[in-house]
């Protein structure tokens, strides 16, 4: 379905981003991976995704907290490949603290990566998408883009901002072949979430498994993690012709979290 398209997926060397990259590659899209990690591990990952799906896979290590690096990244991709057809804004970090102890440095870092990078990448790819009258912009928000949790001020603010940005971009491209939508996952067992589970276990003096169950039962009525594969398949759907009129939506995939 996506043969010949090129997808840039930020934060895609692991977790949700990697799951989305693999799902898009399975539909024939060429992929640009982005993120941090051991260079040898990333090279093995790049080769694996390419060989498994028979597509071209490239890697870019741009620091998305820096506007100039985002602009240079998009320019390099366009110069090398001619277009960014699909942009998935997924890169993100988390920090947990009460507002009065939430450092300005941590706030700025979360907002820069989780929100500002999506804005800058989007503004850089839209002109090319307009010229071709086709494009897909998929923003990975969160259940925290729809509801809040305590001690996550920057993350919740950024994810609510992503949902708002999604709606604005969808309205501004409504008469074109470009769509912009957000996916709002609940708890997904990624490295980021595992750190929270480990911290909860340490603080509560309980096992990691007990901490995992406690985390899920607190928010997610299904008591099951959302999988990266499920999120990837939702991204594939949003790139399909069936989703041509899905514009500005914030799709919850959260085990019932935001239905409460």
Question: Notable features of this structure?
Answer:
260 residues; alpha/beta; 8 helices; single chain; 7 strands; 7-stranded parallel sheet; Rossmann fold
Could you characterize the architecture of this molecule?
This protein has 260 residues and is α/β, with parallel strands linked by helices. The protein folds into two domains: 6-188 and 227-259, NAD(P)-binding Rossmann-like Domain (Rossmann fold), CATH 3.40.50; 189-225. Helices cover 50% and strands 13% of the residues. It has eight helices and seven strands, in the order E-H-E-H-E-H-E-H-E-H-E-H-H-H-E. A seven-stranded parallel sheet has the order 3-2-1-4-5-6-7, with helices on both faces. Helix 5 (153-172) links the parallel strand 5 (135-140) and strand 6. It is globular, with a radius of gyration of 18 Å. The model has no long low-confidence stretch (mean pLDDT 96).
Short description:
This protein is of the alpha/beta class and 260 residues long. The protein has helices at residues 15-26, 39-53, 67-81, 104-132, 153-172, 191-204, 208-219, 228-239, and strands at residues 6-9, 30-34, 57-60, 86-89, 135-140, 178-185, 250-253. It has two domains: 6-188 and 227-259, NAD(P)-binding Rossmann-like Domain (Rossmann fold), CATH 3.40.50.720; 189-225.
Topology, element by element:
Blueprint: E1 6-9, H1 15-26, E2 30-34, H2 39-53, E3 57-60, H3 67-81, E4 86-89, H4 104-132, E5 135-140, H5 153-172, E6 178-185, H6 191-204, H7 208-219, H8 228-239, E7 250-253
Parallel strand pairs: 1-2, 1-4, 2-3, 4-5, 5-6, 6-7
């Amino acid at each position: 379905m996506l043969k010949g398209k090129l997808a840039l997926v930020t934060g895609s060397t692991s977790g949700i981003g990697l799951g989305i990259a693999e799902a898009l590659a399975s539909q024939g899209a060429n992929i640009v991976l982005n993120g941090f990690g051991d260079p040898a591990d990333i090279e093995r990952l790049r080769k694996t995704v390419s060989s498994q799906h028979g597509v071209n896979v490239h890697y870019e290590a741009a620091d998305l907290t820096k506007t100039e690096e985002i602009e240079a990244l998009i320019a390099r991709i366009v110069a090398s490949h001619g277009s960014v057809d699909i942009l998935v804004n997924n890169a993100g970090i988390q920090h947990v603290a009460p507002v009065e102890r939430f450092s300005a440095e941590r706030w700025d870092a979360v907002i820069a990566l989780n929100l500002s990078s999506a804005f800058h990448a989007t503004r850089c790819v839209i002109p090319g998408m307009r010229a071709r009258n086709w494009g897909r912009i998929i923003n990975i928000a969160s259940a925290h883009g729809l509801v809040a949790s305590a001690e996550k001020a920057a993350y919740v603010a950024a994810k609510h901002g992503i949902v708002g940005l999604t709606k604005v971009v969808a309205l501004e491209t409504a008469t074109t072949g470009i769509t912009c939508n957000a996916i709002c996952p609940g708890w997904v067992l990624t490295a980021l979430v595992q750190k929270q589970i480990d911290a909860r276990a340490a603080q509560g003096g309980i096992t990691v498994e007990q901490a995992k169950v406690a985390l899920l039962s607190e928010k997610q009525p299904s008591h099951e993690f959302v999988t990266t594969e499920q999120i990837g398949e939702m991204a594939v759907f949003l790139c399909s012709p069936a989703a041509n009129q899905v514009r500005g939506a914030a799709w919850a995939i959260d085990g019932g979290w935001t239905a409460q």
